[in-house]
Amino acid sequence: MKEDEAACVLFDAGHRACGGCAAAMAARLILDAAGKDTIVVSSTGCMEVFSTPYPETAWNVPWIHSLFENNSAVASGVVESLKKQGRKEKVIAIGGDGATFDIGVLCLSGAFERGHDFTYICYDNEAYMNTGIQRSGATPYDASTTTSPAGKCSFGNSRPKKDLPAILAAHGAPYVATASIAYPPDLKKKVEKAVSTPGPCYIQIHAPCCTGWGFEGEKTIAIGKLAIETGLFVSYEMEEGKITKVKKVVRKPVEEYLKEQKRFRHLFKPKRNDAEIAKIQAIADRNAEKFGIDIKLKK
Amino acid sequence: MLEIMEGSHAVAQSVGLCRPEVIAAYPITPQTHIVEALAEMVADCTIDAEYITVESEFSALSACLGASAAGSRVYSATTSQGLALMFEVCFNCAGMRLPVVMSIVNRALGAPLSIWNDHQDSISLRDSGWMQLYAEDNQEAIDLHYIAYRAAEDHRVLLPSFVCFDGFILSHTYEPVDMLSQEQVDSYLPPFKPYHRLDAADPISFGLFASPDYYMEFRYAIDQAMNQARNVLPEAGRVFSEMFGRDYSGMVEEYRLDDADCAIVAMGSICGTAKDAIDEMRDAGKKVGLLKIRAFRPFPVKEVQKALAGVSTVAVLDKNISLGSKGAVALEIRDALYGSQIPVLDYIIALGGRDVRKKDIAAVVDGAEAGKGDIYYGLREEVLK
Questions:
Q1: Is A227:A208 a contact under the CB 8 Å cutoff?
Q2: At what angle do helices B138-153 and B215-244 cross, to 10 degrees?
Q3: What is the pTM of this model?
């Protein structure tokens, strides 16, 4: 309870996020874990816009937003300035998946290669939500977005999600993790670990977007859980490039996750598309095999 | 004591004397000798700075922005394409009122690719909210860095500043310069005191989004800061003159303009050539003078009006072209002299590093006196065919 109160103080109420917004929950949990001696460098995006309409701010830690694509580079400067001044604040850069996977990947790669001591957190809601649900490099296969719409000759986004955690691990990042908003204690533990690990660390938080994915706001956590339980999003940790921890599940068929969201509705209506659902099931199966997420039930 | 140094090395040394705490830069011709020299100083511990070897100019200025917001004096240097890549960040630095100082080693913009000098790069950032100072020679290039830091960090201003000097013509040329001592620079340039900074003990938010109810007031405030710089820049120059004897108290500099009929207006190294040409023309009985624009932003309207009040013709040498309009300096001069009846003739000159000689300056003056202007000077007609 005490921790939750502290979180409310560091990322305050009164922001403009949609009801049930996972990004807002992520902001609270991140600061709850990181504590008040944290400087946040935000990219342009939903979180930035809903939390800082001048003259108000939801951030009770030092916070800076410069541009869409430069939060890693701005964070590099903040980190080196603090080092020069002998200051001990932790630096966290936060960006959505568009900022992180696409437009900001140059700055992100540069900052990780240089080894600045900061944590980069991507709240991954799998499309450009701030501009109206356009596809990004994090949009999953077959999701219908406003720039990858399902149509007579399209099943939605034609490419699978980019494996950004692996790319950052390949930069030599000491700690890379994925997490889900649906599992707050796990998410907080990973943030604590990242901010206390020297060097550039990366956490990708799966953050279901009720507006962009098409579900009711009270279902955010349930949808987040289904992503993990179907194996379409895997929650794991990598230390020094090696997978050290994976959340195991008794897997559910992907259909249970897909049918809850309007972005996959075209796979079920006007008629069920078994071939495409099978392809998505195959993605989950590959994830399960690669990460070993399946709990084998005794017969 | 005078030392003979390459322009880039002289600038790097003077920047080092300003005690930047964070340097972030990306190599680009003809800026490289500056950032290499600074890297050597950091490697040898002759300066105590964090040096971030970024992966692009875009990140160079972004890192400077972050470090400045965290409370450090910062430095970068770039030119041409590098500055173009920084476009977004330039507006952000000014909007967040971060007093970043950056050397612009002026170079043309592509296409076609050119590594040689003109002023198109910095002029294209005319409206970004950065102060723009232009140096005629290497001594002025190094001294303007001290002045830029002092004015930029002044709490009445809090705006970033370019110090512009001509690529190759100055950056790669050896000239005698008087390098100040560390004690002298320290006595002129106090440690950076941020107006506000990222600090967990006193959390504030930088870079919020502004609705139409607030945005215009932010822009107005930046413009007001530019107006403040009209006073602070000459003040910083005056203090410098009093301490070290070199006079930068004016945002413009007049040369043999008192009784001139024809005034040449120019920025940067071409002013040196113009002065020599003017001496020769004066010897031949022509009443010609020069108005050197040292500060292009903020633009010194009143100083220009005063300096040009008595002339009968103005010939502007523009090392840039606002395509579809005129050279940027000529537009400013025409605006400043609006209603005065003094003809202002524009000469687009020396784009992409084409050499300008004394006889070219004399030809421009002849043309201006005959009323022939608003031209590209020295076009090679055979190439256009």
A1: yes
A2: 130
A3: 0.97
SS3 A106: helix
Q: What is the pLDDT of residues B110-145, one digit of tens each?
A: 999 999 999 999 999 999 999 999 999 999 999 999
d(CA B100, CA B327): 27
**Is there a contact between A235 and A183 (Cβ–Cβ < 8 Å)?**
yes
The rounded distance, in Å, linking the Cα atoms of B283 and B270 is 20
**What distance in Å separates the CA atoms of residue B123 and residue B132, rounded to the nearest whole number?**
9
Does residue A298 fall inside a structural domain? no
Q: Residues B52-78: what's their mean pLDDT?
A: 98
CA distance B331 to B308: 15
- Taken in order of first residue, the domains within chain B and their CATH numbers are 2-244 (3.40.50.970), 252-384 (3.40.50.920)
Between CA B22 and CA B49 the distance in angstroms is 5
Chain A residues close to B211, C-beta within 8 Å:
53-54
CB proximity A171 to B under 8 Å: no
Range of the domain at A35: 2-291
User: What confidence category does residue A299 fall into, taking pLDDT thresholds of 50, 70 and 90?
Assistant: confident
What span, in angstroms and rounded, lies between the C-alpha atoms of B173 and B184? 25
Name chain B contacts of A78, Cβ cutoff 8 Å.
66-67, 69-70, 198
Give the ipTM. Answer: 0.97
> What pLDDT is stored for residue A3 in this prediction?
53
Site of tokens 């990598």: A238
What mean pLDDT is predicted for residues B232-259? 98
**Is the predicted pLDDT of residue A9 greater than 90, yes or no?**
no
What total number of domains does chain A contain?
1
The beta-carbon neighbor of B66 closest among A41, A89, A113 is: A41
pLDDT of residue A1: 43
Tokens linked to A151:
């149509």
